[in-house]
Structure formats: C-alpha cells, structure tokens
Amino acid sequence: MDTRYDFEGGTGTERAIVYVRPVKVDDLPEDVQQQAMGLETLYAVHNSEGERLALVRDRALAFVLAKQHDMEPVAVH
Fold first, then answer.
1. DSSP string, 20-33
2. Strand partners, 54
3. Most buried one in 28, 52, 67, 76, CB count within 10 A?
4. Is residue 7 in a domain?
5. The domain containing residue 22 runs over which residues?
6. Is residue 65 part of a domain?
7. Gap between the Cα atoms of 12 and 76, Å rounded
8. Is residue 28 part of a domain?
9. What is the pLDDT averaged over residues 14-33?
10. Residue 20 class from Cβ within 10 Å (0-12 exposed, 13-18 middle, 19+ buried)?
11. Tally: H helices and E strands in the chain
C-alpha cells in the first residue's frame, strides 16, 4: 500500500476522470490486508481502463487525492 504511482497524464486542460469505489479488505491480497490496520473497507481509485491507481482509507481521502493530481473523481457504487 506504499507504492508510488505517477499520476501525471491527461492532455491539455481536460481533467482525467477517475472512479472511486469501496473495496472490502477481505477481497484484497493477503499482504494488503495486513497493511489495512483493522479496517474493513478501503477505497480504490481507478482510471478509465480499470487500472487501480491507489487504495486509501476513506472516501474523502480518495477524492482529495484525485483532485490534488488534477483528476475528476466520480463515485462508483
């Protein structure tokens, strides 16, 4: 969970859309589960191709992370 990702990308002034969705910790690989510090749910940020860019502890943090990297977050249920 401490892997750096280069969020740069996008072209021109348009903001890349990313998708934020909850992920049950039990559905993640064992090494990630061990780093979840007792949380039951994490929030994933995915690009438009479905690639997971980040896992964070809460929804608000996922949105802040995306906006700090000039991306437009959209919630997925």
1. EEEEEGGGS-HHHH
2. 45
3. 28
4. no
5. 16-75
6. yes
7. 26
8. yes
9. 94
10. buried
11. 2, 4
Count CB atoms within 10 A of the CB of residue 74. Answer: 13
Tokens of 48: 């438009």
Q: Give the chain's length.
A: 77
Strand partners, 43: 22, 56
pTM of full prediction above 0.85: no
Give the tens place of pLDDT for each residue, 42-68.
999 999 999 999 999 999 999 999 999
The answer to whether 20 and 43 have CB atoms below 8 angstroms apart is yes
Whether residue 35 lies inside any domain: the answer is: yes
DSSP 58: S
Number of domains in the chain: 1
Cα 7 from Cα 53, distance rounded (Å): 8
Provide the pLDDT confidence category of residue 8 given band limits of 50, 70 and 90: low
Q: What angle do CA 67, 71, 76 make, to 5 degrees?
A: 90
